[in-house]
Amino acid sequence: MSNIYIVEDNDRMRALLHDWIDELPGLDVCGAAANAEDALRELPQVHADLAVIDMSLPGMGGIELVAALRERQPQTRCLILSGHNEKTYVERALAAGAQGYLLKGEPSEIENAITRVLSGEQYLSASLKTPGAPASLTR
């Protein structure tokens, strides 16, 4: 069983992600937070294997949270969940240490994204890997 932690400021989206992920085989939601600061306080106690992190959080943003987690808890993998499909956001998230970047408009990919990131692979939403996408995003 893999432990998943959710960081999402929208209450409805956080609840939806919690319910959806909890229903997937082999996954258990071990906690959730509405902001990065609460997540940084809670994550050391819950032993998450993966943090699903919203890009746009109040206060400390998702990219900054990924960088902080990579430093404090390098064993916890990070999957960014974002509404931003611009190359600069993706590149910044990956440079900060995120192992995956999932667009919010592609919910059918969530199980595959989580599974691949947990197995040590990098995951990018399918639409980020379309022909004509920058080479750095087509890996």
Description:
With 139 residues, this protein is α/β, with parallel strands linked by helices. It has one domain: 3-Layer(aba) Sandwich (Rossmann fold), CATH 3.40.50.2300. It is 39% helix and 22% strand. It has a six-stranded parallel beta sheet with strand order 2-1-3-4-5-6, sandwiched between helices. Strand 3, helix 3 and strand 4 form a beta-alpha-beta unit. The longest helix has 13 residues.
Secondary structure layout plus pairing:
Blueprint: E1 2-7, H1 11-23, E2 27-33, H2 36-46, E3 50-54, H3 62-72, E4 77-82, H4 87-96, E5 100-103, H5 110-118, E6 123-124
Parallel strand pairs: 1-2, 1-3, 3-4, 4-5, 5-6
Number of domains: 1
State the strand order across the main sheet. Answer: 2-1-3-4-5-6
**Main beta sheet: strand number and arrangement?**
6 strands, parallel
Q: Would you state the CATH class?
A: Alpha Beta
Radius of gyration: 14 Å
CATH structural architecture: 3-Layer(aba) Sandwich
Order of helices and strands: EHEHEHEHEHE
- Kindly report the oligomeric state of this protein: single chain
What's the CATH topology label?
A: Rossmann fold
Shape: globular
Defining key terms:
alpha/beta, 5 helices, six-stranded parallel beta sheet, Rossmann fold, disordered C terminus, single chain, 39% helix, globular, 139 residues
